[in-house]
Amino acid sequence: MNTAQIRTLFKKNKETSLSHRYIINKHIEPLIKNLDSSIVVETIGISVLNKPIYGLKIGSGEKRILMWSQMHGNESTTTKAIFDLLNSFKTEEYLKDILTKCTLYIIPILNPDGAEAYTRINANQVDLNRDAQNLSQPESKCLRTVFTSFKPHYCYNLHGQRTIFGAGNTGKSATVSFLAPAQDEACTVTDNRKVAMEIIAEMNEALQDVIPEQIGVYDDAFNLNCVGDTFQSENIPTILFEAGHFNNDYGREFTRELIYLSYVKSLVYIANNDVSGGLYEEYFKIPENEKSFFDVIIRNATFNNEVLDIAVQYQEVLEEEEIKFKPKIEKIEDLCAFYGHNEMDAKGGIVCDENGEVVKIGYENVFVIMNNEKTSLIPK
């Protein structure tokens, strides 16, 4: 199945009840209730604030794949794509073949308290992705219990990334990123890492057709407290997925399609191949992410007779079950080494807030005045 065909499947099977960035248990529970009877639905644990954590088991194949999303509660794009995938299994005969060769265990929202509060951390202020060794939190214990009992052959660690990342020195945003996590301090390229790398290389090839030069990999510095590093260290090929930013896609709906494409491409590859890791070297052609972007850069603004640039970053704020993007000025300096997802030119003029005051670092401005015009900084 080629990339264009998979993209067509996405449009056909997209779960329209899930959209934008705020996804919590109450949004997925009606979908879980109406899943096909062939999918085993379990409550595998309870969060700090007594919310259920759901597990979904689908397929009957020998190859076992464990997937978990929203370990960080404010990273929901991969969750949306999970339900698009589940819809596809119900309707597409070609994809049903995956389920005869693979068994998937999916945790759609591991951190339901963080999801509801729209925070990275859980209700005890703990980053679950730094709790793999201590297992101090009920959500961490839940994932570990499933890992131990399910005995996966592959793990998909599903996350979202900030808008600040570029794909190497391409000058383009890292819209999707991956990592085959290290399993030791030396970052040895072990056999199971090679397996993960080979699968990532397969996904990268498909994504390059759609978003050329916008795929990155993360630094593989080893941290055993991270779940991916822990599972990799136990010799289970583990893949980090990171759903990032595409131009003007602050709702992450296009990125959602790309994550779906990655799911399908990787699952078909695993189902139909004995993945040995022999084709891992293409992984190293993917550029490493760099912190090279701001949401907005206003170029060529004058401050005390000096021409500088203004960097604006959006603060993601939960208001009435919607995510609002609040502009905040992060830097005022020469930003020639950085890119803006939206770039404006002050043309040597002074940039003021709505009250006529020259903007400063830390200002939170919805509008600025430049070139004698009132300009909105809010994403369209």
UniProtKB/TrEMBL annotation:
<dbReference type="InterPro" id="IPR000834">
    <property type="entry name" value="Peptidase_M14"/>
</dbReference>
<feature type="domain" description="Peptidase M14">
    <location>
        <begin position="14"/>
        <end position="246"/>
    </location>
</feature>
<dbReference type="Pfam" id="PF00246">
    <property type="entry name" value="Peptidase_M14"/>
</dbReference>
<dbReference type="GO" id="GO:0006508">
    <property type="term" value="P:proteolysis"/>
</dbReference>
<dbReference type="GO" id="GO:0008270">
    <property type="term" value="F:zinc ion binding"/>
</dbReference>
<keyword id="KW-0862">Zinc</keyword>
<keyword id="KW-0645">Protease</keyword>
<dbReference type="GO" id="GO:0004181">
    <property type="term" value="F:metallocarboxypeptidase activity"/>
</dbReference>
<keyword id="KW-0378">Hydrolase</keyword>
<keyword id="KW-0482">Metalloprotease</keyword>
<dbReference type="GO" id="GO:0005615">
    <property type="term" value="C:extracellular space"/>
</dbReference>
<comment type="similarity">
    <text>Belongs to the peptidase M14 family.</text>
</comment>
<protein>
    <submittedName>
        <fullName>Peptidase M14</fullName>
    </submittedName>
</protein>
